[in-house]
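Sorry, explain these tokens?

___
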Amino acid sequence: MSNEFPETLTMAQATGARRRKSTEMMMKVPIVTATFWAIKILSTTVGETFADFLAVNVGLGPIPTTGMMLGLLAIALIIQFRTRSYTPWIYWLTVVLVSIVGTQITDFFTDTLGVSLYVSTTIFTILLAVVFIVWYLQERTLKITSIDTVKREAFYWAAILTAFALGTAAGDLATEALGLGFMWGTIIFGTLIVACGVAAKLGMSSVTAFWIAYVLTRPLGASIGDLLTQDRNYGGLGLGASMTSVLFLVIIVILVAREQSNVRKYGVLIKGQKATGGQRRDLAWAFGASAALVIAASLMTGSPLVQQSATADSASGQHATQGPLGDLSPFSTIVDDVTAKVKSGDLAAATTRVKDLETSWDSAEAGMKPKSPTNWGTMDKAIDGELTALRAGQPNQTDCLKASVNLQKVIKSLSA
């Protein structure tokens, strides 16, 4: 009898172990490494530029784009939650979509509802704090290495979405309030993220340092993206959104493919056990990707196509009158053309031409708005009036002409 009892315990323990193994979920998120931060920052930039491409260049508009991205995010989250362990391509696709939706939530508050960035920053800060408080009260831990249940993963993604919205609002607020250029924004936000890592090494809570850095990746990614995409007249390098997006996407695919290979080779996090193939190798990959990005951007900036575009832009603005927002002559040319078509009664042609105004204005926002947010808002409101009049269900020539003339007056006043 005494010989059977230990055997019975062993069998029971084995059964319990099998049950725990069948119900226990492996880690669903990646290890926080240099590669993690590299992909995160690049994903932020690509997510933002792709949303702008759909809303402006394709012409879907902000609301349809947001609806589409919400649908794609829902699908991605369903797939992510159904996986039993960290799958790099699914995880990072979800991050990109969350970055798009988080950014568009803040833009909706600011551009559509007219909510002040001070207010939206405060609201999202409070919401993120609430997520963390409820998360901790429910799970008694906020460690990133503890994301191994459905509930914890739900809190994790809620925190990430709110962090993106907060990063967008706080980043825009800092850029506008301090008048930071793209280069200075990149340097300052990058330095703050490095400072979070140093603080964690010196004793700061790793959880606190991680989430502060995570919020800061949004304005850093936006600054890097704007630095590369914006016209040289606005302080950028003039690569354009399409070329920058392709460049970033290539680097992301390479790094995520490497992550996918590591998962197959080394496995994933299980109860905090790390298996990544070596920290030095990870640092080398992250550094190599960053160096490749800088070299490629430099080569593309120095290409004849980009130089020709930059020279043309510079020549067109040499004799232009500079106001608080810079050179508005390109917009004035489009508005004059639209006004002429409205006066002739060709509202269909005016509606087609005003699309060029919308695209150009939205593309220049990152470079112009920080120069003078108030004046930018004045012109943005006048442009919205023009768009609303021409895109009405039954546009009226008198209303369209009134909106066009008003916009011409605004441009003239801001060009003095």
